[in-house]
Amino acid sequence: MKADGTGKRQVTNNGKANFAPYFFPDGKRIIFASNMDDPKGRDFDLYSVNIDGTGLERITFNPTFDGFPMFSPDGKKLVFASNRHDKVQGDTNVFIADWVE
Predict the structure, then answer these.
(1) Phi/psi at 45 (nearest 5 deg)?
(2) Is 40 exposed, middle or buried (0-12, 13-18, 19+ CB in 10 A)?
(3) For residues 51 and 54, what is the distance between their CA atoms, to the nearest angstrom?
């Protein structure tokens, strides 16, 4: 949507929770967290989608929570929160990954 709130456009419609959207540095795609592939609705992974709602792609495949993705300004790094490798169940850690198209 535009800065003034007009021009809203829905880019996901999967009946699941989709949150923490963040634009790719190119401004043509959005990365976000969703539980769309977990029948129980507990596992969140990262996905990308074009700004027109096409081209949905799953980014992470982890049996725990992945969320809150953000790119570095140059687009070379992706940072996200995850419960993977937790010492105690439910611990959330921050991960930085090299982004390779």
Answers:
(1) -130, 175
(2) exposed
(3) 7
Alpha-carbon Rg for the chain, nearest whole angstrom, is 14
For the chain, 101 residues long, give each residue's pLDDT as a single digit of tens. 889 999 998 999 999 999 999 999 999 999 999 999 999 988 999 999 999 999 999 999 999 999 999 999 999 999 999 999 888 887 999 999 999 98
Residue 63 and residue 23: Cα distance in Å, rounded? 25
Residue showing tokens 């725990």: 64
Rounded to whole angstroms, the Cα distance separating 77 from 98 reads 5
